[in-house]
Write a structure and sequence with these properties.
Elements: H1 2-23, H2 31-41, H3 50-54, E1 69-76, E2 83-86, E3 92-105, E4 108-117, E5 129-136, E6 148-153, E7 159-163, E8 188-189
Parallel strand pairs: 5-8
Antiparallel strand pairs: 1-3, 1-7, 2-3, 3-4, 5-6
Length: 203
């Protein structure tokens, strides 16, 4: 009887351990999230205040959600003029509307402007960088009240993939000393974008 009893106990232990291992949630990080954490952890690049850097344990992200990765149709506007985009300080940046993107999200269609900075002597005149700032209904609740940004590059065609899982906070969300472009009101999405970087703690 003892061998049989021992076998039963061993079997029950295996089942228990198996159930326990299945309950463990495995947290995975995208390359974007890894890069963000490395950047913020490095004192030479981090926008965090020194007291926040000492206590830094990682950026708080929404779970990666593939429904917030959308293909958008880009309509270029090559004749737009550069204008002064306001920032959180007295500084302004020279931007122009490079084009508009239209896409479907949560069964609705939306349109946003994408911006291109004016080339300077210090920058590459052939830069393919585009800037997508946006506001949504999560701002002030689970995300930064001033909206978030997404970095894009000029596509060869007229399709731009927008991954809201890569939405990040402006530096002034972490430290008021920074000067950050203010998101234009026309780039408001009337829904909660629960993807990307979450709101940082209050100062």
């Amino acid at each position: 009887m003892k061998p049989l009893f021992s076998y039963c106990i061993f079997f029950l232990v295996l089942i228990f351990l198996g159930c326990q291992s299945q309950k463990k949630s495995i947290k995975t990080y995208s390359e974007f999230q890894k890069a963000q954490n490395i950047f913020f952890k490095d004192a030479s690049t981090s926008p965090l205040k020194s007291k926040d850097l000492k206590a830094f344990n990682g950026i708080d992200f929404f779970p990666i959600d593939s429904s917030f990765v959308v293909k958008s149709q880009l309509k270029r506007t090559p004749n737009t003029s550069y204008f002064e985009m306001k920032t959180t300080t007295e500084r302004v940046t020279k931007e122009r509307v490079f084009g508009t993107i239209s896409f479907r999200l949560n069964e609705s269609y939306f349109e946003l402007n994408v911006y291109q900075s004016e080339p300077s002597l210090k920058s590459d005149a052939e830069s393919d960088y585009l800037f997508l700032p946006f506001l949504d209904d999560s701002n002030g609740e689970t995300t930064y009240g001033g909206g978030r940004y997404i970095d894009l590059t000029i596509p060869s065609g007229d399709i731009l993939v927008i991954d809201f899982n890569k939405a990040y906070n402006p530096y002034c969300a972490y430290n008021e000393k920074y000067s950050c472009p203010i998101v234009p009101r026309e780039n408001y999405l009337p829904l909660k974008v629960t993807a990307g970087v979450k709101r940082f703690k209050d100062y």
